[in-house]
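As promised in the previous annual report, we have extended the structural survey to additional targets. Below is the entry for 2-dehydropantoate 2-reductase.
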Amino acid sequence: MKVLILGAGGIGCYYAARLMDAGHHVVLVARGAHLRAMQTQGLKVIHPQFEFAAPVSACDMPALMSDYRCADFDLIILAAKATVTASMMAELANWLAAASTPLLSLQNGVGNEPLIADVVGSGRTLGGLAVRIGGHIVAPGQVEATGVAQIEMGAWPDSRRNPDWQAHLLRWQAAFVAAAIPCTLSDDIQQALWRKLVINNGVNPLSALTWLTTRSMTQDPVLKEIVREMMAETVRAAQQLDVGLTAQDAADMFRLISEFDDIKTSMLVDREKGRPLEVDEICLPVIEHCRQAGQPAQTTERIHRLLLTSLVHGV
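The corresponding structure token record, generated without further manual editing, is:
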């Protein structure tokens, strides 16, 4: 396969390294010192079960649009922060319109796929999530990752309403698995995305507010109850959209994050590095849909407001 990865940060670079190690051609889109390091020194990825160090094809957005055609790629993976999805899609709209290459989102939140579909149509939009992976840039051109690093993906919003890509999904699934990337297909990727939001809303905002890792929060007798409450509110928000989640999903996600490697959440890492946070992208769908259901997500609203206030005042 020839794969384009938009937003080659920690997680995007890990998957890119796995694919390149398996013989696929990957182009990474990044910026700043990380991009310059990859262009001059190559990419280094360290994972407990895998190491990669090699030259890579890397460029910025203007170079992508001038040096490549959309039709050059079999698959485009969006691994960028959800905060830039709308602007990235707007910048690439004309370039994307010249071909029919599908786009797979591996991003946080539940709002990326609609933004992608607004530009390329639902027929080219694939929903996805990176499961049980922690990945961060530790130095320009260097990434450390942990976890099983599974991908779950499917036609968006589900296979019943968008069945055309099933054969392609099976082919890409086989390619990912052969590259040592566990991959499962979902008939209802919208439900899977909301299920992951249960974890993201449960731990990401609170970690950025408290500066604590996942295990520090889930083992604290007070903070773990806040995590549980925010997970329960996420389930309520999903139910308002008729997404089939239950209280058992919240319990399962709490157990998963409690038993997973102790990690800094992506939002905590972004705060440490002074980067924009995905706080609205993660919290607002929960807040808005719980309000619509007549049952406000009080804990999510409070943590959201406290985090935004602390960012404004530099606390």
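The mean pLDDT is 95. DSSP finds 13 helices and twelve strands in the chain. These points will be discussed at the next consortium meeting with the crystallography subgroup.
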